[in-house]
Amino acid sequence: MASFDPEAGWAEPSDMRLNRLLIVALAAGAAAGCSRTSSNNQAAPAAAGADRKYLLERVDDAAVVQLYADGFDALPLREKTLIWHLSRAALAGRDIFIDQKHRDALEMRGVIDQIVAHPQGIDAATLVEIQRYAKLFWINNGPYNNLTARKFVLTLQPAALVAAAKAATQAGGRIETRPGESLEAKLTRLQPMFFDPNVDAIVTNKTPPAGKDILEASANNLYVNVKMADLEGFTETHGLNSRLVKQPDGTLTEEVYTIDGRYSAQLTGGCPVRC
Prior knowledge:
Elements: H1 20-34, E1 55-59, E2 62-65, H2 77-101, H3 105-117, H4 124-140, H5 158-170, H6 183-195, H7 214-217, E3 223-224, E4 242-246, E5 252-256, H8 264-267
Helix pairs in contact: 1-2, 3-4, 3-5, 5-6
């Protein structure tokens, strides 16, 4: 859980904008640099060729780059294994980070991932826009710009997203819904987050509008139904390691990030946060 300072806001977790390739590349580079294995018995990494491609594409104001893990093949098995475990930890941390940005973020990702993975029968223009949005979502680890913390949205009609989601499910996609909830109801519930730039517009709002405080005006998932006034006289037990929830009776409860608490699945290598 993040502590608030009215002037500075809270310190959010460092951004893990790393896909699987980038995670392995960085870890491999670090391991190669600190390896104790004698270089006399290992071939030097191949020189970077002039034909290497680094910039893969641009998506709005973001660039997607390729990193190369020179020397990875020459590492001892022990260090390769360490790199694999680090990559798994980073992927688990990614899901935790996405969930901490907004309560609906993982559900949103579940929708767009299935549409992109099952594009058969989707209108071409609709698919292009959803792919653009999906790439930004993946790059920024959520529906908020990594630098500005402001939300980006789909430039579609909501009906087009519904049609795309239905086509994806007909093509074999599996979009999870809550018990008793239809796909249409799920998309209606998520519609403000996908399309309205004014709903939960910023992760941490340090200049809240009249009638709201910093906690009420911020979109993040670190506090639930909590106002600044609720924190008066409250002492944290778990510091930055929990989510603070105000219960219906007004009591404050810390949901601790532990293997037997919140994010248990991620911390133990299980399934993603339930959507």
